[in-house]
Amino acid sequence: MTADNVTGALASLSDDFPVLLGPVRVETRFTATELLVRIFPDEWCTDKFEPRPTRAEIGALDAYWTALWRSGGNPVGEQAAWQELVARVPGGRASWLLRTHRPANPGERPTGLPGGTTVLVVVSGWPLPADDRQPTITYWTAIWRAHGDRAKQRAADTALRSAVGQTRAQAIRARRPAGIDAAPTTAGDAVAVAFLVLPPPAAADVAEHSWTQAARARLLPDRFTVFGYVNGERVLTATGVTVPDTLAVSPDPGVGTDRQLKVNEQTGALRVPDELRWLTDFNRAVAVGMGLRIPLTPSIGRGLDRLIVLGLRERSGPEQSATQLAELINRQSRGPAGYVLLPQGTPTNNTEAAPAGQDARAEAEAGLRAAAGVTATDDWRTKTDGEWFADLLGIDPSVLEGMPNADGTDQRDARAANTALWPATWGAYLRGMMHPILSDQAVDETRDFFVRHVSGRGPIPAVKIGRQPYGILPTTAFSRMEFPEGAKHRRALHKLLGVAAQDWQTAADTVSHLGKNGDPHRLLLDILALHPTSAEFYQRYAQSVEDIFNRENLNSGGPRVLPALDQLNMPQPIRALLTRLGYADPPGPDPDVIRRLFVGDQYPLLGPLVDDRPPSETDTIRPYVPDRGNYLHWLVRHAARDLETIRLERGFIDDRPPAALLYLLARHAVLLGWEDCARRLAAATPGPVPSGRDQLFIHVRPNRPGQQPLPSESRFRQLYEPDRNITGTADKLVVDFIPDAIAAQRPATAQLVEQIRALEHLAGLSTARLERVLAEHLDCASYRLDAWRLGLVNERLAELRYGPDGVSGGSPARRGIHLGAYGWLEEVRPRSRPGEKQVELSGDLAELFTPPGSSPLMHDPANGGYIHAPSPGQATTAAVLRAGYIANASPANRETFAVNLSSERVRVALTLLDGLRQGQSLGALLGYRFERALHDRYADAELDSFITALRGAFPLRAGRIADTKPEPGVAVDLIEARNVIDGLELVLRATRVPGADVYPFGVQGLPKPSDAQRKAINDEVRRLLDTHDALTDLAVAESTHQTVAGNPERAASTLDAYAKEGVAPEPEVVRSPRSGTTLTHRLALQLTPGIRPGHSAPSFQGDGPRAKAEPAVDDWLPTVLPGQQDVTALVTWVDPGNGVARSSKVTQRDLNLRPIDLLWAVRPVSEAAMTDLDDRIIGVVATRDRPRPDAQLIIQHTRRVPGKVTFFELAPLIAALRSLLTTSRPVRPTDLIPAAGDAPIDRAADEALTLPRERLVAVRDSLAALRATVTGYLADLAPLFPAPPAPVHRTEVIGNIDTFLHRYADLIVTAGGFGMVRSGWGEATAWRRDSYAAVLAAVDEVADRMGRALADADALIAAYDALPSNTPVPERFRLLERIERLLTTKPTTPRPSTPERLRTTIATRRQTFDNRLQDLREVARTTQPALSGLMAQVAALLPLTHLDPAGLTLTPFEDKIVDYGRDLLDRARALQTEIVDRLTAAEAGLAEHDQAVTGPDRLRAALDTLKALLGEDVLAVPEFTPSTQLATDWKKARDDSGKLIKHLEDAGRDFPVDDWLHGIARVREKPRMWEQVVILSDALRGSGGLLGDVLGLEEPQLEPIQLPYRTNDHWLGMEFAPDTALDTDRLLFTAHYASKPLPTAGNACGLLLDEWTEAIPALKETTGIAVHFDGPDSEPPQALLLVAPPVRTGAWNPDDLLAALHETYELMKARAVEPAHLDDTAYAHLLPATLVSATQKPITISTDYATNNLRWKAP
What we know:
Distance between the termini: 76 Å
Shape: elongated
C-alpha cells in the first residue's frame, strides 16, 4: 500500500478532534533483498483485566470491610483499612471490587463512637439469628473486659451457657469477633460489638487463579505505514495489512495444556500457541499487520536516517474512540497492574534519596481520595489534574473514579505560581526592559497566554500503567501552525517562537547526547546529570549605559563610553536578534534591556529557595509570624489591604524577614502588583498615566529654587500621592484607596485580586511542591522555550475542547478523540559482519538449527560466544559484566572491564575475605602473602633481607617495625598488622604514577638486588597484583549480581565493605543454587500413654510428685537407667570417740528417688555447691547409721563401689537425659505430616492435646500432705517460742533440738521433690557438728586446766610429804594451804588444829577433784548420738566452780541452740507459706481447668497448675488422640519399618538406622544427646559395663517410618533404593517407642526431640546461558502524543501529522538546552526575564537578590 492510503485515512478524520498517538516498539533487520520491520504494542494498549475476583481478593475485601467496621468511624482507622487493602489489591481494582462486594447490612456500621472505644466485629455470611445478637454482644463484651483474666472469662462462659444453652453457646463462641485477640490500643473497658454481614459470592463469580485469560492489545490502528527518510527527504512509504481489532500478547491459561506455550525438552522446539505466533513468526506478524517486508531499493539500501511508523484507527469515530479509550483505561485501572496519574516530583529512577515511583502509602491515600470520583468544576482554582486529563483527552470523567491522584493539583499549582510571580518576572521585564517594543495591551495578552497555557509541566499529568510511566505530550506541527488574521498577538508570538526555535535547535547540537563525538563516559555522565528543572541559581548586576556614562564623565571620560561599546560590538548582536524576532526593520529605538550592561561576576544564591528546612512533600513553609502563619500567608493577609506592612516587612518573628528566594520574588511581585493596579486605576481616569518602567536615576535631579518641586521618579510615587481622579478626594492616597477598589471589584484591580488568590493557593502547598513550581516558573523565564511553544498547542487544545475562547463557560468539555500509534528509529543501517562463515551441521543439530527452508547458520568470529552459569540470575550477571567488557575493552587495552572469576582466583579472593572478617586489614593480608612467598618460594635467593627494607618503605605503622615471629599459639597469618609490609600500599605504588611495577617501585634507598633477586621480587609483585585483582573482580561481580537481582542496598554495602575493609557479606555470585525435594526429619521419643499417677514397677520404691506429674517418662527411664539398688553413694567418716574409720553405702532406693527424680537430683559434677542429693545422702546416714554428731561425713562421689554405679558415674547419663527431655516439646498430631508439600495440615488437631486431671490432683494431694506435716511440725515447735515478753521454753527446746532438726530436714527432703530446694540435712548436720564439737572443746579446755592444777597439787603434796620432821608447823600449814587452793575454791574453815588433820582433808579433796576430772575426760569419749544428750551429760557434771575458779557454763551453747530452734521455726513458717501459696495457685488452676471450654485452655490450665505445684521446670507430656486415618497409617508404617530399610541391609549395612544416627549426631545437638544416652546407658548396664550383663537388657532402638504412608516404600534417610522417584515432599519420623505395639486407637504421647529439613538436590537444575547476542535494543518512546491540528481546515492533513512527529522530535532535543548552551548567544543578554531594580535604599520598588544570601548567613 502507498501513501494514498494514509492520505485517505486522514482525510476522513475531522480536525475538530486531536489525535492521540500511543508509542509502539519497532525492530528492523536488513536481509540481502529486504528491510524487515516489526511492530510490537506497548503497555498503554495492553488489557490485562480480570473480570472475576480471586479468593485472595475476596479475603482482602472482607478484611477491609472488617477493618472499616472496626475503625468506628475514626478517619485514621479508615485510612489504615484502605492502606491494608491496596497493599494486597491495586487501588483502582480495589475501588471497583468494593462496588460489587459490599456488606448486606451497611446501616449497622458503627460510627460516632466515643473516643477510645474498641469495636469488635462479628463477621458472618448471613445475618445472625435475632435471639443470638444480644447474647453475642453480652458475651464478647465480657470477654474483652476480662483482659485475659481467666476467672472472668470462665464467668462469661458460664453466664453464656446459662443464658442460651450449650449448643447455642458453642455457636456464639465459634463466631469469634475480629479484634478480640488484638492488643488493646486504648486503656479502659469501652467496647462495642458490631455485626458485619458479608454474603459469600457465588462460586461461578470467583476466579480460582489470579490469571485466567490472555492479555490483549486493544485500540491498535487499522494498519501501520512505514516512512523512511534520508537527508531529510522521504524515500520510503509502505503500508501493512489490516491489523485485527485485538491481538493476544500473552499465553492464555484457560486453554488446554496441548495449546500452552511449552518447550519440548527432547527436541528443544518451542510450541507457540497460534494466537501468539505473530510474536515469534515474522510471516505471521506480516499477516496480522504487525510486520512489513519492504523490498530494498537503491535509496534505502544503505539505510535510513530516520524511520517512522504511523498508524491511525479509522474503524471507530472520535466519539466511539473516546468511549473505547475510556473503557480501556477503566479495564487497566481495574486490572492487576493499575492505572495511576503521577504527581509532579515522582522519581523516575532509583536514587539514594528515594526509590523510583510514587511512595506506596501516598499512592494508596490518593486512591482512597479518588474512590468516590472527582467532582467536575470550571474554575481553574478548583479544577483537578484528573479533570484536565479527562477534558483534554475528550473522555468520560467517570474513568477517574478510584484512579490515584485524580484529585491532584499540579496544574493548579503551576498556574498559581505563574500568576503570583508574573509581575516580578515577565511582567516587569516586558513592560520595563522591553520598552518601547511592547504596548500595554501586548503585555496583557502575553500575560493571559502565559498564565493560562505556559507551564513547565504541561497541561496533562503523566500516567503509570502497571510499572510503565508515560508522559502525555500535547504537540503539533509547529511550522504549519496558522492563526486568524485578527489574532495579531498569536501570529507575532508564533513567529517569534519559531525564530527562537531555530536558535535553540542550533544550541541543541552542543548538548551531550549518545553518538556525539567525545569521551563516551563523560558524555554519559553529562546525560545523566541533566535535570528537569534548574538546580542552582545565580544573580548578576546590570548597570545602565547612562549610569556608566555619568560615572566616567566625572573624570571627563563620558564621551568615550558609547564609541567604546560600539567598538566592542556589544549592542549589535542584540539588535540583530531582536530584528530576527520581529522587531521593526530597520530597527526602532533600542529597548531598555540593550542599555543595560552586566558587569562583574555572577554570584550563586546559596540561601533557601522556599524555606530554611529541607524540602518536604507534606510540610508547608514553617511559621514566620507570631500567629503561626508562613510568609505567604503574611503576604495574602496584607496584600489586599496593607501595602505598608509589606513594604516595610513588619510583623515577622524577631523582626527577621525571610531569606527565601520565593519570598523575595513574591513580595516584589505584590509591590509591583499594587503599582500596576494604581496605573490601571489612573488609566481609567482622564489624568496622566505613569510609566511602568524603572527610571534610570531616582531623586538625583535637584529642585530649583522658586520652581515647582520635581515629581519623584520612584515607582512608589503613584501609590503614595493623592489623586482626586482616582480616589475622588484630594487627601486620600491611592495606596489607601486600592483596598476599597478591591472590595468594590473595580476592573483595574482584577489582576491584583487574581494574584492574591494565587498566593493564597501557594500558601497551603508543601515546600517541595513550591520548590518545583518556583524552579519551573524561573525556567520558563529563561531557557524553557519548549514550554512557550507548547503553550500554543495547549491553547489550540483548549479551543477544541471548550470553544474558541478556550474557556468552558460552564459546559462540559467536548468529548471525542482520534486514536493511532507511532514509533520511530534513528540511524537504521545494515550492519556488515566481515569474516562470517557458514557452519555445516549434521544430524540432530542440523535438524534443529537449519530445518528445510531456513537461512544457513553463520559463525561470527567476533562474537563472544556463551557463558554457562549455574543459575539464570548468575547468567544475567555474567551478561552484564561481559557487556561492559565488550563495550569498553579494545585491542589496545584488553583488560578494561575484564572480570576473571576462575576457580583459583575465587579461592584466593575468598581467603582474603575470611581474613577481613577476622579483623585484619587488606594491606596486612596482602603483605603477609607477599612476605611468605618471598620466604618460601625463593630460599636460594635469600630474600629475607629485603623484607625489612620493604617494611620500611611500605609500613602499616610508620616507625614501628617489629619482629614478625608470632607469639606461641597464634596463627602466623593473624600476626599484628604492624609486623608485615602494607601490601595494599605496595599494590598502589606498583600501579600508579610516580610508582613502577618493578623493583624498587620508584622508592629510594632500597637495597640493590642481584638479577635473580630482582626477578623473584618482580614475579611476586605480579602475583600480588593478580591477587588484588581477583578480590576486586569478585567485588565487582558480587555488586553487579546484587544489583541485577534488585538488591541495590546489598550491592552498595558490598562495595562499601570492600572499599573500607569492612565485614563483607558472603558473596552469592560464586554460590551454586540448588533446588530439590524437601525431606522433613523428626526425631521423637514415643511414650506409653494412659499410665496413672502412682503406677510403679514392684522393684522401684518412692512416691515422688514428679513421677505423679509425668508417669510416662518415669515409666520409660528404667529402660536406660540402672536399678534403684544398683545406684549408690559411699559415705565415710572417722568415729571421733574411738578413731575407727567407718563407711556406709546409700542407694537410690534408700533415698526413695524415682527415676524421674534423678533428672533434678543429680547435678553436673562441675557444680561445687552441696546439692539436694547430698542432703538426702547425709540424711540417710545420719538417721540410719547414727554416727556421733561431730563426725565429719564425707561423700566419696568419685570412689568406685564394686558391683554398683555411683551417682557420680551416673551423672553424665543423667545430664544427657535432662537436656534431652526438658528441652524437647510434646509431639503433636501435625508432627506426623510433612512441613512442606501438598498434604493439608489441620492445625485444629493440635488443640486436642490433653493432660489427665488425675495427675494434677495426685500432685496436689501430695503437696497438701506435706502441708499437713509442716503444720504438725509447727504445732510442736511454735509453742516453745511464745510471743514476747513471754520467755522461751529453753529446756524443751534444748532437750528436743535433735528431734526438731531431724524432722525439719525430712521436711526439706520432701519439699525438694516439689522443686522447693532449701538447705536441709547437710546444713543441719553441719550446724549440729559444729555445736557438738564446741561443747566438747569447752569441756576439754576445763579438763586440761584442772589436770594442770591436779599435777601441780600432786607435786606440792610430794614435796610436803618429803619435808624433814623438824619442819616448823607454820611452814607446813603454808604449803598445805597452797595445795588446798589448787584443789578447791573453798578452803577449809576454820583451819584444822594440826597439819596432819589438814593433810587428811586435802587427801579427801584431791580424790574428789580427780574423780570429777576423770568424768570430764570421759565426755570426750562419749557415745551420745544427739546434741541434747551431750548437753545433758555435761550438765550433770556441773557446776565446777568449787573445783575450778573459771568453771564451765553451758549458757552460750544453750543460747545457740535456742537461736537455731527459732531459725528452724522461721524456716518452717516460710516453707508453709510457700506451700500454701502453691496450693492456692494450684486450686485456682484446677478450677480454671475444670471450667475451661476449649482444649488449649484446659491444657494451659493444667500446665499452669503443675507449674504452680512443682515450679517452672516441670516436665509433663500431654496426650493426644490421632485421627483414625493417621493412626492407621502410623501403625502400617511402623509395621513396615523393617521393610523400609531392607534395601540398606541388602546393600551391606547391618545397622542402617544406627549409621544414620551416628552421622546426624555429628552435626545436630539433640541426636548427639540421644546417641550419648544410648552409649552411656550401655556403658553402665551393657555387656562389659560397670554392672555387668543385666538380664533382659535391651538397648533403646529407633524405628524409622515415612509418611504419607506408601506400600513397598524405601527409607530416604540413607542411600536411596534404585529407581527411587522423589515426586513430593516426605516426612521421615524416626522414634523410639516405649510401648509395643502402637495401638491403632486411643491416645498417644511423646516428646519431639528434634526436627530439621533436608533438601534433596533435584536431578535436573535450571541453569542459565549468557550469549553474546546483538539483538534489537530499541524501546518505544515513553510518551503518548496528543497532536492538535496546526490549522483548522475541517479534516486532518497527513503531512501535518508526520510533520508533528518530526518537529516533536526536534522539540525533544531543544528541551535539553540549558542556559549554559546559550551563553555565547545574544539570548544570554536578554534572558532570564527576571531583571528587577536593586537599590541600596528602599526609595523605589526594588529587590536585591543578594538578600537571599545576606539574610541566610546572618546570625
